[in-house]
Structures are given as structure tokens and as C-alpha cells.
Amino acid sequence: MLLTEKGGCGMLSHVRSVSYDITYPVTCRSGRWPMTDDPRIIEDPVELSPQPFGLFTPGMGTYVLLFFLVVIWSGLGLAFMIMDTANLDLTSIDPVLFIYLPTMVMQWLIFLAVLLAIRHESGRLSSIGFTRPKLVHLAAALAFMILSNLLLAGLQAGLEWLGLPISSDVTELVKQAGQATWWWLALSITAGICEEACFRGYLLTRLRAVIGRGWVWPVVIATISFAAGHTYQGWGGLIVIFVYGLMFCALFLLTKSLWPGIFAHIIQDFAAIFLVHLNGS
To answer: Tens-of-pLDDT digits for all 281 residues of the chain?
Structure first.
């Protein structure tokens, strides 16, 4: 790799050859892109940017969106959980009008905020794992679903034995989805794309850039925020979703693409209506 001996992000001068084993991009002191098209030449390197999914420059929009996803979103989920929802009768409301549509609108708005934040960061969609979809991604998704569902089935059985079952409201909601299959499919696609892009692609990579090297804390924080949007499933469901979220993070980091998670998420959600009617519960 060629590194400049001195000078800012301007004309290259006094270039000398230095050998480094670097796997991550290097940023300039001014925060701007290098002025050269040669990826081997980095101008005035001062620090490594631990961003294996691509270069971007975090700005005010980044921190605002992180605050919303980590603090406000989690707070709303917690507030919903402590509310008295025992008297909520899902059979008396129109799920399309009061649940499906509001959920889809909200998630696409958050997805739009992610796209705007990426644009403001001078980044690309690849910086959150939006690569070219391939058949191997679908194969990875199917293998992931088989393994994860086997593990989660054991976890759910253990939680039920401990008196922490998933809320029955979820079962009732899925049963009603059988009467609006196309709407449920639209909801499944929305959740698959938006939730994976927001909580795995964006939140995970930006938290790592802000916190520093290492994936442990970004994975934990992003998964807590993701699980907070599923508090309506009760404590048992919350624990299952948290573990499931950890698995999705692992899938994202191993494949370095959002598509395996998106495929698995969509298939998992849409298949729920068939599994519920098949089991009768």
C-alpha cells in the first residue's frame, strides 16, 4: 500500500512505499474522500475506520437516527408492554386498518429515514449490507431457518415450562391474517426489508463505527432495540425474539449481506399463518 509522507487531502507529494496488512478502509484527517482514484493510495492516514461494509462519514443525521432507534423506539416498546392490554380484543377490530397498514407505514418511514441518513453520510447502500442478491443468499436463509427454528422451539418449550409463554394475542392476530393473506404477505415483506435494513444493516454498522472496534456491544444494543418492537408478545416472546435477533445478527455478519436475513425474515413471518392453522394454535 502506498501512503503519503505528509500533506493533507490535496496534491500527493513525497510518496513512499510502505507495506501494511490492513483489512479496513482508512480515512483522511479532513474527513473527505481521497482525491485519487487509486485505491492503493491513501492520503494522510490518521486512523483506521472499522467499517468493513464500506466508507461513510457519520453526521448529525446519523446520531439522531441512532437516538431514535436505540432510545425512543425501545422506550415506546417498553411503554406498550407496561400498558394494560389485557382487555384488548383483537377479534373486534379490523387488523388491516388498525394493525397492518399503520405498521407498514411506520416501518417504511423509518426505512426512508435510513436512506436519507446514508445519503447524508456520503455512503452507499452497500454500507448497510445491500449487496447484489444471489441464490446462495436464499440457500443461506433456508439453512438458517431450519437451524434457528430447531433451537427456538427448544427455547420456547423451556420458557413455557417456566411459565413464560408467548402472548396468546399473537396467535389470534396470526389467525386473523388467514382472512387477509395478501395483506399479511405485504406486512411480511415490509418487516423483512425494513427491520433488517434498520436494525441489522444500519443500526449495527453505525453503532460499531461510533463505539469502535468489536461487534459485541453493537450486536447487543441493536438486538435489544429490535426486540423492543415485539413487546406485545409478552416476556416469553420478548426473550425468544431477542435470541432470534442475535441469530440474525450472526447471519448478517457471516454473510456480509442483508439478503439472507431479509429472505429468512419474510419466509418466517409469512409461513406463520400456515403453521398456526396447521397446529390449530
So the answer is: 444 334 444 444 443 333 333 333 434 433 433 433 444 433 333 333 445 677 788 889 999 999 999 999 988 888 877 775 545 565 667 778 888 899 999 999 999 999 999 999 988 899 999 999 999 999 999 999 999 999 999 999 999 999 988 775 666 666 666 567 888 899 999 999 999 999 999 999 999 999 887 899 999 999 999 999 888 788 888 999 999 999 999 999 999 999 999 999 999 999 887 776 555 54
Residues 6+ apart with CB under 8 A from 224: 74, 242
Q: CB burial class (10 A; 0-12, 13-18, 19+) of residue 104?
A: middle
N-to-C CA span, the chain: 60
Domain ranges of the chain: 1-49, 60-279
Distance CA 186, CA 194 (A): 12
Q: Are 59 and 211 in contact (CB under 8 A)?
A: no
Distance CA 76, CA 87 (A): 20
Nine-digit cell string for 211? 463505539
Give the closest residue to 238 by CA, choosing from 42, 82, 114: 82
